[in-house]
UniProtKB/TrEMBL annotation:
Entry protein name: HTH-type transcriptional regulator cbl
InterPro entries: CysB_PBP2, LysR_HTH_N, LysR_subst-bd, WH-like_DNA-bd_sf, WH_DNA-bd_sf
Domain HTH lysR-type: residue ranges: 14-72
Keywords: DNA-binding, Transcription, Transcription regulation
One term of GO molecular function: transcription cis-regulatory region binding
Domain of life: Bacteria
Organism of provenance: Psychrobacter piechaudii
CDD domains xref list: PBP2_CysB_like
Length: 309
């Protein structure tokens, strides 16, 4: 976005470039050098924009340690939601223009977890690219809270994750699909013939499952804790492929998301349904006060059709 507009009020003369500098500095972790790269300008130019804005406001926007920016002052914290709203509206106007002039060309950025990207979205992305071959898809992987922040700050057009997305009023969420966990063991394991496994039995084996904060790990820990059980987690990983590999190697009994079990890839393993840890919902989120491009809406529609929503 090329922005060179001055807002004149009785006491202030603020350039949108100054507000843009604040916004990009925040979303780039207060790293002026990185923000300058994104904006295709120099670090010194951004510093001048910040100084000019602070002079206008007669207050510092950023907390500083020497020459480094480390956070927002109370004034900066109060300004940020309004700055984000301004650029949300600018993006919406830009999207309207792009949809009118170049409806089948552009970039769609998706922020999602590894599980969604690896096991759920490949078919959707293939169908989408068949419909919109000139749209560049950018797939960014993160934890659910980071995904929510990326959508809120305009770093991603669409976020896909579990319930964490529902906890933010800035987001508009669409139900994607429901899922639960599976226990996986080698086919020659003593548990392999069971139709289900009770919690005490499961807790008596060394376990291999997800890292904290990913794919329902919090619910797994809470369920064991509430049952007065303390299982031994011998390995925690972000990726169900890693979990499956180490279960196959005999390290322990695995707990993974049901959609992540691929029998064709791990023919030496078997999956056992369990409902101890509850049902989960994956959600699709966009920023509530902004409109994404029409091909983004088409992507969401494809996702909803995938599971008959």
């Amino acid at each position: 976005m090329a922005i060179d507009v001055v807002v004149n009020q009785r006491h202030l003369q603020i350039q949108l470039k100054q507000l843009e500098t604040v916004w990009h500095t925040v979303i780039n972790g207060y790293n002026l050098s990185q923000a300058a790269q994104v904006l295709h300008t120099s670090q010194s130019s951004l510093s001048k924009h910040i100084s000019a804005l602070e002079n206008q406001l007669k207050a510092e926007v950023f907390v500083r340690q020497g020459k480094r920016l480390t956070g927002l002052t109370p004034v900066g914290e109060a300004l940020l939601p309004h700055i984000e709203s301004i650029f949300t509206e600018i993006r919406t106007i830009e999207n309207i223009s792009l949809d009118y002039n170049n409806p089948h060309t552009g970039t769609l950025t998706l922020a999602t977890t590894h599980t969604q990207a690896r096991y759920v979205l490949p078919d959707i992305i293939k169908k989408f690219k068949e419909q919109y071959p000139k749209v560049q898809l950018v797939l960014q992987q993160a934890d659910p809270q980071t995904i929510a922040n990326m959508v809120i700050r305009g770093q991603a057009d669409i976020g896909i994750a579990t319930e964490a997305l529902l906890q933010n009023s800035y987001l508009r969420c669409y139900r994607y699909y429901d899922w639960s966990h599976r226990v996986i063991v080698p086919k020659d394991h003593e548990l392999a013939e069971l139709e289900t496994i009770d919690l005490p039995t499961l807790a008596s084996y060394p376990l291999v499952t997800y890292h904290g904060g990913f794919t329902g790990r919090g619910a797994i820990d809470q369920t064991f804790h509430e049952a007065g059980l303390e299982p031994e987690i011998v390995l925690a990983a972000l990726d169900a492929d890693v979990i499956s590999t180490y279960v196959g190697a005999g390290l322990g009994v695995g707990i993974i998301a049901e959609m992540a079990f691929e029998q064709g890839h791990y023919q030496n393993l078997t999956a056992i349904p369990v409902d101890h840890f509850g049902r989960f919902t994956s959600w699709i989120a966009v920023r509530d006060d902004a409109e994404i491009r029409h091909f983004g809406k088409a992507f969401i529609k494809l996702c909803q059709q995938q599971f008959g929503n």
